[in-house]
Amino acid sequence: MRAAELLGRSVRDPDGTYLGRVLDIRITRTPGTPRPGAWNIDGIVIGHRWALARAGYAYGNVDGPLPLAVVMRALGRHLRFARWDQLDIPATTAALTLRPALTELPHPRKV
């Protein structure tokens, strides 16, 4: 499966409640590997506003004009992060299932 196949897919909790869509995929470099190194999927960002998540302002690690950054971070408060091991991913294009309840999911900037 390609990572791009995950973007836009629905995410549901175990009860079938819609939580949002996969807006972004967070990756990390495997420690101790030579450059460029191996990359692993750390988790996914779940939310409703596609452009907001892709801009990166909601994560708190993008600098920009202060008024824009403040507004974008406020609008991005609905974003949640799910670790890769918290997901059941079907081989089809069906919705992903999240194992824990939504209240256990942190905001991406707090991960």
UniProtKB/TrEMBL annotation:
Protein name (database record): PRC-barrel domain-containing protein
Natural source organism: Demequina lutea
Lineage: Bacteria, Bacillati, Actinomycetota, Actinomycetes, Micrococcales
